[in-house]
Design brief:
By secondary structure, the protein is an alpha/beta fold. Helix content is 39%, strand content 24%. The longest helix has 17 residues.
Length: 266
């Protein structure tokens, strides 16, 4: 007898390609597969990189980026969309205009600006376009410590500052905000603050020492989009995604000379 085919929920990631497989499109698709959702992609940039650095970036033409997104929506009608590396004003404008027309049910925007290695993944001139055109369309934005500091134009150095930042980002852009404190120094816990106008939540997990964190931001936001596509309410999707990324780090493995996240942890 033929097994009955299950109907998979679909998630679209709009992000850059990481040749090292640790972040970007590659990390997102592995995350989606591990959660049992069908992953689709629209590639914004090709990057030549590994966990130690980015050697080169080649941006996609805005026209083909739009066609990628439209092709996915026409066939798969994604239940959630996640954006990552957008790099330039033309790409941000294209993504914002296209998604404004297509109206995804859930849009998670990871405002990727700088790689773990320090390489710029968003041109400084594009920050204003990101804030003006895309962030107001988001269901949730997921800046890390440094990205939130850029968006708010002030340094964030303590957990309480993250709490205030989540509230201010919600007020400024009209969407839920998850401010991630994994880059806070001298803390035993990795703390994140979530605020959506009604729910204010603190998520904590033990900080795991001596493990590479390349790709954690991409994976975290992809997991939120995946759980949202599965029907989880946003606060619960964030809670599950926090557990997911914590375990992916804790059960990381070695590939070549680097630690890599374990997207299929048990």
């Amino acid at each position: 007898m033929k097994a009955r085919r299950s109907h998979l929920r679909t998630v679209l990631t709009v992000a850059g390609s990481d040749s090292g497989g640790g972040a970007g499109i590659q990390a997102d698709l592995k995350t989606f597969a591990s959660l049992g959702v069908h992953g689709t992609s629209a590639i914004t940039c090709l990057t030549a990189q590994d966990p130690s650095g980015v050697r080169g970036v080649q941006a996609c033409h805005p026209g083909i980026l739009r066609q990628q997104i439209e092709a996915v929506f026409e066939t798969f009608h994604p239940n959630a969309v996640k954006t990552g590396m957008l790099y330039s004003i033309p790409l941000i404008t294209t993504v914002a205009q296209t998604l404004h027309q297509l109206q995804p049910a859930c849009l998670v925007v990871d405002p990727v600006m700088v790689a773990t290695s320090g390489a710029r993944l968003l041109q400084p001139s594009a920050i204003r376009a990101l804030c003006r055109d895309l962030l107001p369309l988001a269901t949730l934005i997921t800046p890390n410590l440094d990205e939130a500091a850029v968006l708010l134009n002030r340094p964030l150095t303590a957990p309480e500052a993250l709490r205030a930042a989540a509230r201010e980002l919600h007020e400024r852009f009209g969407c839920a905000a998850l401010v991630k404190g994994g880059h806070l120094r001298e803390t035993k816990l990795a703390v994140d603050f979530f605020y959506d106008g009604r729910n204010e939540l603190l998520f904590e997990a033990p900080r795991i020492p001596r493990v590479s964190t390349h790709g954690t931001g991409c994976t975290y936001s992809a997991a939120i989009a995946g759980y949202a596509a599965l029907g989880c309410r946003l606060p619960y999707a964030v809670e599950l995604a926090k557990q997911y990324i914590t375990n992916a780090i804790a059960q990381s493995a070695r590939a070549g000379s680097h630690s890599v996240l374990n997207h299929f942890w048990e």
